[in-house]
Specification:
Distance between the termini: 40 Å
Strand order of the largest sheet: 1-2-3-4-5-6-7-9
Radius of gyration: 20 Å
Shape: globular
Helix content: 10-25%
Largest sheet: 8 strands, antiparallel, barrel
C-alpha cells in the first residue's frame, strides 16, 4: 500500500509539472537576444553610425543582460543594464537603464531598442534607440508597449553583424 501511495504521489507530481515545462509562448521564461553589429542613421542607412552589442536573457531568475551603443554622437553612446525583454517570433524589444552614458544626465534614463532576426542572406534589422526620463527600470509590459510603437517606425538593416532572437517554445 505504501508503494502504491508513493507511485501515485510521484505520478501526481509529474502530471502537474510536465505541462508547466511543455507550455510556452512569446515572452516565455527563456527568451533571449544576443549579437553585435553596425548600423547607419535614418539619413545615411549604409554609412556606419552606431556599433552595438546586446546580450539580453529571460532566465529562471528574471531578465538580465547588457546593451552597449558606441558612436561619435554622445546622445547614442552609452552602456545599459537590461531590465526587460519582449520576444515575438523573430522580433525582440530590449529595455533597461543607462548605466554609463556619453552625454550629461544620461545615466539612469531608460532605453529601448528592437531587433529583427532575418533569415540569411537578408540582413538583420534594428529599430531606432528610444530613451526616456525618468526611471524606474522598464518592465516586461513597458517593452511590449514600446515594441508596438518602435516596430511601426523605420527599421535599419545591419551594415555588418548578426543578431539572434530566441523565442522560447
Amino acid at each position: 500500500m505504501k508503494r502504491l501511495a508513493a507511485c501515485l504521489c510521484a505520478l501526481g507530481f509529474l502530471v502537474s509539472f510536465v505541462p508547466a515545462i511543455s507550455s510556452g509562448s512569446a515572452g516565455g521564461p527563456y527568451d533571449s537576444v544576443t549579437g553585435a553589429g553596425v548600423r547607419g542613421s535614418l539619413a545615411k542607412p549604409t554609412t556606419p553610425f552606431i556599433n552595438f552589442d546586446v546580450s539580453a536573457h529571460n532566465g529562471p531568475h528574471g531578465v538580465f543582460g547588457t546593451y552597449n551603443s558606441r558612436s561619435a554622437n554622445p546622445l547614442v553612446n552609452f552602456n545599459g543594464d537590461v531590465t526587460c525583454l519582449y520576444v515575438n517570433g523573430d522580433h525582440a524589444m530590449v529595455g533597461g537603464l543607462v548605466r554609463k552614458g556619453g552625454d550629461t544626465g544620461q545615466v539612469g534614463t531608460a532605453f529601448f531598442v528592437g531587433f529583427i532576426d532575418n533569415p540569411s542572406p537578408t540582413p538583420d534589422q534594428v529599430t531606432l534607440t528610444s530613451s526616456f526620463n525618468p526611471p524606474p527600470a522598464p518592465t516586461a509590459a513597458d517593452c511590449a508597449g514600446v515594441a508596438a510603437v518602435l516596430f511601426t517606425l523605420p527599421v535599419l538593416p545591419l551594415i555588418s553583424g548578426n543578431v539572434e532572437v530566441n523565442d522560447a517554445p
